[in-house]
Fold this sequence. Notes:
five-stranded parallel sheet; homodimer; DNA-binding; 194 residues
Amino acid sequence: MLTTGEAAKYCGVNFRTVIRWIERGRLKAYKLPGRGDHRIQTQDFVAFLRDNNMPVPPELVGTNNRVLVIEDQPEMAAAIRRTLKRAGYDVEVAKDGFIAGTMLMRHNPALVTLDLKMPGMDGYQVLNFIREQEDHSQVKVLVVSAETREGLARAKTSGADDILPKPFDNSELLAKVSQLIGDGQPVSAQDQLV
Amino acid sequence: MLTTGEAAKYCGVNFRTVIRWIERGRLKAYKLPGRGDHRIQTQDFVAFLRDNNMPVPPELVGTNNRVLVIEDQPEMAAAIRRTLKRAGYDVEVAKDGFIAGTMLMRHNPALVTLDLKMPGMDGYQVLNFIREQEDHSQVKVLVVSAETREGLARAKTSGADDILPKPFDNSELLAKVSQLIGDGQPVSAQDQLV
DNA sequence: TGATATAATGTCATGATTGACAGGTTAGAT
DNA sequence: ATCTAACCTGTCAATCATGACATTATATCA
């Protein structure tokens, strides 16, 4: 939730200009009853920035170091979790599709590792679904799978940001994750601003 | 029921501001005897948000008539959907666990019909999971299944509000649903208007 | 090219609301 | 019964909205 002044700083313009954008309907916002202050929801502001090819401040893009691991094999899940935790990421594990779905919505992770082969879940469909979701179209998806080369290629066309064939080294995993969302250690505690 | 602090977070303002709104009669609330804490009824708060064209958080939309149908068999899903739609409910269908999870979080339904036997999803686990979730512990769960009597009993202990053995009549379905969350037709459509 | 019109943005002053802080109290949890 | 987190009140500084006007950028036309 942002005020006009904060939004103005992010854009490098005068707050008067932000108000005018709002008045013209370019930027979505609502008014408070008292003085008529504007409040801009962070997601609307980010959408606005993206629409106009403006740089998006990292602290507005959710919490950068949160990873959701969608994986039903306990050992594999534990291994990924351990590796990422050690590197400083905030890791959640979902061992079935339902829980994965709720966690995606609830925790709004920066990255999801997705096992394509989970019982009762079509990984490709999940990929498509995530990409269709307004709110989560920005989340990075790293497909982790023992699929064939064709399957992995198909995953890429379905919206995966990167793929990691099983088996893999921890270093490979970390390299891919950090390439997609940066290092696990938060740059500063201010990233947690609400 | 909300405190000033909670309302403040929803609006993106300081709690002091919320108190001022209350003092000026813009927002309805009442005081507790002790410290003079304010308590705001959810419906009053939602009405306030609507009056001022402010976004209404989905989890506050109290008595809605939204139903989420978790069912992987297309014919069965269509049948339930049709029946409930006709009765005036707002129906969403999820055909796998992942989508079901996201929809539960996104649409905040008043009731979920849950097929216990879905591939890759342990219905009992889902039940437990829903009950553990802070935000959604209020949602009613109607288990719809061809399970054995023991299985259905177990579902009840896992947190199901009611069970409906397959096969069933439409009238049975409607009876159970309306018993759990009331009739499908909103009491008055104007309640939802701006 | 150069001149003019139009739109967008920045600046300033005023008035009102909101946020921050400090000190005291209690609701809710254990 | 105790403890912590959250709440209330009052005050004052910071912030925001508004309107008027200056300045800059863009478009249009001769």
